[in-house]
Every structure is written in structure tokens, then in C-alpha cells.
Amino acid sequence: MKIKNIVSLSLIFFVFGNLSAQNPWPKTTETAKPWTRWWWMGNAVDEKGLDKQLITLNEAGFGGVEIVPIYGAKGFENQYINYLSPEWMKMLQFTTDKAKSLNMGVDMAVGTGWPIGGPQVSEEDVATKMIVQTYTISSGEKFSEKIVLNDGKLKNLKTIKLDIVTAYNEKDEAVVLNDKITNDGSLNWKPDSGKWTIYAVFTGKTLQKVKRAAPGGEGFTLDHFSPVATVNYLKAFDKAFGNSNYGVRSFFNDSYEVYNADWTPDFKNEFKKRRGYDLSPYIKYLINNDENVVTTRVKSDYRQTLSELILHNFADNFTNWAHSKNSKNTNQAHGSPGNLLDLYAAVDIPESETFGSSIFEIPGLRRDTADIQKSDMPDFNMLKFASSAANVTGKKLTSNETFTWLTEHFKTSWSQAKPEVEQVFLSGINHVFYHGTTYTPADVSFPGWLFYASTNFVPENSLWPHLKGLNSYIERTQSVLQSGKSDNELLMYWPIYDQWASPKGKDMAFKVHNVEKWLQPTPFYDDLKKLNKIGYSLDMVSDKMINESKSENQKIQTAKEGSSYQVLIIPELTYLPETTLNDILKLAQNGASIIFQNEPKDIPGNFEVEKRRNQLKSLWNQIPFQNQGENVKIATFGKGKIVLSSDVEKGLEYLKVQREKLTDTGLKFVRRQFDGGKYYYIVNHTSKEINQFVPINYTGKQTTIMNPENGDFGVAEMQNNSVRIQLKSGESLILKNSETVDSSILKWKYVEKTGTPINLDQAWQLSFKEGGPKLPKSRNLKKLEPWTNFYDDPATQSFSGTGVYITDLNVNKRKSDDYLLKFDKLYESAKVIVNGQDAGIVWSIPFEISIGKYLKKGENTIQIEVCNLMANRIRYMDQNKITWRNYHEINFVNIDYKPFDASNWKVQPSGLDGKIQIIPVTYSK
Asked: Would you indicate the residue range of the signal peptide (predicted)?
């Protein structure tokens, strides 16, 4: 085409990079790459299809897959394969063999759909609930009723039994009547006086079935509190797998979403063994919601017992079983009625999840409120429960189910995904799983098979050609975040007994989806937010972890491979076990520093209350506090120090624990330590550009800046323990601070000035490369416009795919070191080709890319291949009643879990809009 712009450029081309230097990036493995959850719909898979999709995923930059079978598509029933059948195991073996040849890994769920359960769950092992029936009886009356279960759905089950019968008079005096009930339910007891209420507790069954189950995986949900149920459940896998693990790296269990399961057949005996007293006389307090001392204490003991049962009877058994197969295990502990920290720590790979969309201040980042979940997720501090458990106990990986319902289906761009995954990284997580990818047979037309609750990381996605940009960014970042150990300086105790003391309800599930109820209203949460904001890094710790910790060289460490910490903080609380206080004082005795926000008011639980309360007070009174000024008391305790102050920041200042002042700029960070130095991963989620010297606590002898988006690196400019940082809104970098100097690494190229932008306000050619349902017509443009502006061609309104914009410019001479190609409005990502050379993918904010090294003197051609969202094509299909969703069980729903219909959507702008500029750049010398 004709030249529309002549640009003056210098003759010497600047090549940004450091090709001769030793590469400072850690060696990457398949684990550093993102993995994806891989739904096998109906298990309708075959070797040809598995081979093709694994190759496609590998080429896009995925390091592994996590197989989760779910419900199938209608019309393909003859292709379904039963879960764990010989044919299914054959498909698994083919998958792991193929993945190994591609240097990919394979995980798989121990069940189909969720929560864990299936056909092997017998009536005895079904999730169990307590059923309470009440009766009244007065002195002198004959009790003619039978104490039998009245629930018609359950009363014929063989496993139903009467567990506890207790009568209470009007003075709340209790009489346990377990031995007064005959086999037919008759009561052989009459009160001497007064009116009595009888509480009868039955062991019942929830009858909850597995949600979204695949063929061969249908059945009841498991009783997580029963050791027998867990062992019995895993026998089906022993039978299918034999002595092999079939190449599975890790066996995965999804989040605990078991409803109304608050009992187990042996609960009464387990309670007495663990809590030291019989629950029978207190059953009334367990089921009511009265705000009284006995209720809070009994419920705390009940919830602690549930926590211990799910930890030891499910999580520990699950881990031991996976290890018997020479594999690892992965578990999402959230949602469980237990101490999340201990449950996460009980497995090899703790896994959290994000759900929904976050608010970021990044200019140009689209966040249409009509297309997002209305929830308090994702919550940064909720994510830290999993990473804390990993860091404290020395797990190398913390995984995350990432991008669940990030936006409405078909409307998620990779630029929207970037800050969301960065928030995951900043929480300490270092192994993300996309949610996700669906296996689709080759003969299924667009958009292929899709899962109803995810972001569509599928090859049929029109944005797929540019996914490598996001995946490469994650790979580089995770290669760093999986190196060495976490380097957080603070431990924060989670006062779970304050939660367990609530008089409301029975079991207490700590869910991702209701953090506004159990996490956000607490002083603990306020501390987490404040300390993070002012530049402190912390992990959470449980009573069990404190008990297992040691103090050496003024540092606190729980496990040999775990991180060590400078200070243990006990936030404002009411209840603290005397045993935990004793463990804390032992740490201080051996050199640890402790901060209490307040004096613990009481011990939890209902066993030997006065004795244990006195022990708590006695231990506390051993601390020789002295006033150190307003709101600060201090004590030397053995080799350690104890501070009492409601202001944690004051306590940390007294203990001379430094915060990272870089957060004063609004930057966020996470820090890792490696043998010989420390990494800082730093993100700019503010609305402004950061261009200044930023203080950091550890610099080493050389600080190297590493760009995780393109792999560039160079030695940073330093000044008084501050590093010069240039980050535009939405950008990130990594600092590698080493104790050794590598003189082969050149200086980082800081932008010293930019020249007058050259606007490419000229003619362009627009054509269409791939996509559908039909390619729009090619056209010549007088100026840049989205292709959706051209209403004269109906195909532009329905097209999802790749549009190609091409223009020419003449290079006369050049005076700058480099040139940035900057996009004003990009819908949604672009591959830039200059003179036939691939300059890279523009997929994240700010939408710009360096092209200086590809320009030449004379005529140049710039080609921009733009991919848009799937939304317009789906809109067209729904408007024209083209069937594309036809699944068993749940069919397909929108962001609000209502039937999906895109026919009334607005056309999503697609292509290029606004200005495209070439910006001359001069770098520091």
C-alpha cells in the first residue's frame, strides 16, 4: 500500500536485552508454567482427541492438566466411559504418557464433580447429620409416644440410630435417659416432679449426592469425619490403580461443600475422648442459639472436635493414601468446619481458590458491573490461609483455582486476567490452575464443550492465539516464586476459638464465599489489612503450629523446611487455650519476640473451666511487664521479649522490626529468599506511574531488575539502599538481590526521556484471518476504527476471531535508542509484526511494545493481528437459535446462575480504536 507516514529515525538500532549475559532467571519446569483444570465431560474422551488437545495446551504454554470428570453432553452418551473402569484407566495412562513426552504433568480428582463421593459410598459411609426431636413429659403423666425417627425419608435406613436422650426440667437440670429407652423406642422413665423437655438425638444421613457427577461417579457424599468411610472410599482407587499411580503427580480433592453434615456415628465417644466430658447432658445447649456461657463453651468444644475429626480421619488418611501410591495430594480445605490452617498443612499442596472479580485502579482496565459476580471475593487475606500453611510447614507449592467466574462467559480478556493472578501471587501462592479447559471432541463445532462456571481457556476461544503472552508471564513469575522460601517476617495467630464460641448454629464452615461473615468483621482481619498496607509481610499460624514450633537465634520456625519468623503476634481476642499460652511462653523463653494486643480474657471450652482459667492467669502473671510509655508494656522473658500493646505497629517499632517502605508508594510486593539473596516481586496496581528511587530492606551486593512480561533484565541503579523503579500502572517487575556480583549483566535501561509521539493517523488495510461464523469483508480504512463500527457488513457484528490491520511507513533516519508502539484502545489483544518479524504480543495494560530493533531504514510494514472476544459470535448464535449448549444436569448458566442467553447483549467493540503512536525513547547510559 502507499506510504502514509515518514518517520525520522537514527541509523544505529538499539537492541534491548542482554544476550551475552548469564541469564538470572531460574530454570523453569513444567510446574512453573500455569496448569489448567481439564474437565472430561461424560468422560467422552479418546486417544486421538487427548493427543491433539495436550499438544495444543503444550504449545500455548501450559505445564500440566488436572483431570476432573463431570456430567456429559447430550447426544454423546454412546461415547461415555465409566469413571475408574478399565477403559477409563486406559485413557488416563495414555494421557500421562503423552503428557510426559511433552514435559507436562497430570493431576486428577479423587472423584467426579464435587464434593468427594460416589457409588462406593455405602449407607454407613454417607455424610451424617444429627437429627433432634423434642418431647414433653410431666410428673404423673404416662409417656405414650415412641422415641423413633419421624423423618419419612430416613426412618427406613438401616444406619439410623438413637444416640442421645436427655431430659431437662424448667431449672435446666439434666437427666440422661439413654439406658431408659427400649428397642422399640419406649421410654421407661417418669419424672418425680415438674415439667420436662426430652431431647432425642438421632444419627441421620444427609443423603447429599455428588454435584456435577460424571458417569461412574454418581453417588452419595462421603462422611469426612469417619476414618472408616475415608478408607472405604479410597479402596475403589486401590482396585483401579493397583500398585501403580499411572503417572499421576498429585491426587486432588475439591473444596468442602458438604451441607448439613454435622455428626458422625462415633461422635459422642470421640467427643468424650477428646474433650474430657460426656456431651449427653449438654445436648440442649448444642442445638439452641441462646447467648449464654454454657452454650458458647459447649459449641466451641463441639466445633473443635469436628475440626480434629476431619483433620485426622480425612486429611491425614488422604495424604497417607496418596503417598502409598508414590504421589502427592492436593486439597482445598476451605469450606470445612475445621481449622483451615491445619487442614491445608496436612497435605502436600494446599490449594485455595478465587471466585469473581476484584476492583483495581488501573486506568483502562475494563470492569463492567453487569458482567461480574456481586460478592466479596476474591479476598486477598482469605488466599493467605493456604499460602501461610505452606510457608510455615515447608510446602514448596501453594496452588490456586484461578479465574473462576472472573467475568460473564465469553467476555474475559487476558488483560483482565493479569491483575487478578498478580493478586494471587502477592498472597504467597505460586502454582496457579486455570478454571479452566474442557475436553472437546474434534467433530463438535464452535464453541465446543464448555463448563458453566469458568473463564473459557479453550482452544475455540477467539483470544487463544495470544494466550501465550499471559502464560509466559505466569511462567517467569512462578519460576521465581517457586524458588527458595517465603521471606515473611511476621506470624499472626488465628484466634479460631473466638469464632468457635459463637452461640449461633452448630457446625461452622469457613467458606471462601462468606468471608464477610466469619473473617472480615474480626480484629484479626483488621490487623492483616493494616500490616500488609504499611509494608509488613506475614503468615498465619494455628495453635497446633505454635505447639510444633521452636525458637532458635531469635527466630521462630515450625518445620525444618519451613520459613522462620522474627515475631509472633497474638491479635485481640477473648479466648486462648492455656496450653497455647504455655507454648508461646516457651518460645519467648528460648528467644522469640511476642506481641499481644490484649490480655487473653478466658480459656475456651467447657472442661475443668476454673482449673484451666487459673492456669491461664497464672501463666500470664509470670510475664514481668513494665510500662514503656503510652499503650506499650514490655517484658524480658528468658531470652526473648514480650510486648503488650493494642497498637501492633508500635510493638513492632519497639522490637525494631523493619517494614518495607516501598508500600508508601502504593506498590505491592511479595518476597522470597534463596541461597545467596532475595527476590522481590513488585506490582503497580495504583492509577499512577511510579518513577523514583524506592527503599527496600535488603539489597545485597547487586540488584538485578527482571521483567516477567518479556524476560528482559539488567542491573538496577541504586541509591542509599533504594532501587530506581519505573513502573507504569498495571506493570510489574522482579528484583533479584544477590550477595554475588555478575559483571556480565549490563545496566538496566531506564527511560530517561521520550520524544514527540508520531501518530499513525493514516490509511490502513483491514482484513480477517480466522474466526467465524463468517469472515467480514476486507476494506481500506482512512483511519483506525474497530471493525464493529462497519454496520454495512453484518458479519462485523457477529465475528469473533482475528482481524489484521496493516500500514506502511518510511524510516528516514533515527535519533532515539528505541521506539514504543503504543495503543490507545485495543479490543482485546494483538500480535505485532514489523517487516515480517514477530515483535511480540500486546495483551496487558499498558498496551505498548518495543519495536525499535525491528525497524529499518526505508520502507517498513507494520502488521497488527487483533483478537476479539467470543461474545459477539455467541450473541449471534443465540439470536439465531443455533444450539451450542446441550448438557445433562446443569445445562449452562450466566454469572447470576440463571439460564444463559446472549441474544440481548450489546455488540462488544472489536479491533483497534483511538490513536496508535510510535514514541521515541532515550535510555539511560
From this structure: 1-21
d(CA 267, CA 369): 46
Q: Rounded to an integer, what is the distance from CA 63 to the centroid of its chain? A: 18
Q: Which residue carries 469483508 as its cell?
A: 777
Mean pLDDT of 177-188: 95
CB 295 within 8 A of CB 306: no
For residue 96, the surrounding DSSP H or E stretch is helix 86-101
- The number of residues in the chain equals 925
Q: Say how far apart CA 466 and CA 408 lie, in whole Å.
A: 20
Q: C-alpha angle with apex 495: 537 to 320, nearest 5 degrees?
A: 85
Beta strands in 89-173 (DSSP E): 105-109, 117-118, 128-138, 161-169
pTM (2 d.p.): 0.96
Q: Are 613 and 575 in contact (CB under 8 A)?
A: no
Q: Which of 18-32, 40-54, 678-692, 891-905 bottoms out in mean pLDDT, i.e. has the lowest?
A: 18-32
Contact 231, 125 (CB under 8 A): no
Instruction: Examine the pLDDT at 576 and tell me if it is beyond 60.
Output: yes
**Which grid coordinates belong to 847?**
498496551
Residue 355, beta-bridge partner list: 404
Query: Position 812: which residue type?
Result: N
| Structural domains of the chain, with CATH | 30-118+330-484 (no CATH), 661-748 (2.60.40.1180), 758-869+908-923 (2.60.120.260)
CB 569 within 8 A of CB 595: yes
595 in Cβ contact with 567 (< 8 Å): yes
C-alpha to C-alpha distance for 265 and 873, rounded to whole angstroms: 54
Residue 171 cell numbers, joined: 431449672
State percent of the chain over pLDDT 70.
97
Whether residue 482 contacts residue 33, with contact meaning beta carbons closer than 8 Å, is answered with no
Largest CA distance in the chain: 111
Those residues whose C-beta lies under 8 Å from the C-beta of residue 475, and which sit 6 or more positions away, are: 28, 32, 33, 34, 61, 63
Q: What angle do CA 249, 251, 256 make, to 5 degrees?
A: 150
DSSP state of 312: I
Confidence of residue 372 (pLDDT cuts 50, 70, 90): confident
Instruction: Find the Cα–Cα–Cα–Cα dihedral 238, 244, 249, 251, rounded to 10°.
Output: 0
Where b means 16+ CB within 10 Å and e means fewer, 767-794 reads: ebeebbbbbbeebebeebbbbbebeeee
Cell of 313: 480421619
Closest residue by Cα to residue 304 from 500, 495, 543 = 500
Single out the residue of 410, 439, 464 nearest to residue 39, CA to CA. 439
pLDDT of residue 213: 97
Among 225, 229, 203, which residue's Cα sits nearest to residue 308? Answer: 225
Task: Give phi and psi for 849, each to the nearest 5.
Answer: -155, 145
**Burial status of residue 156 (CB atoms within 10 A of its CB: 0-12, 13-18, 19 or more):** exposed
Q: Which amino acid is at 796?
A: T
CA atoms within 13 Å, Cβ hemisphere of 492: 27
For 227, how many CA atoms within 13 A lie in the half-sphere containing its CB? 11
Which amino acid is residue 150, in one-letter code? Answer: N
Amino acid at 813: K
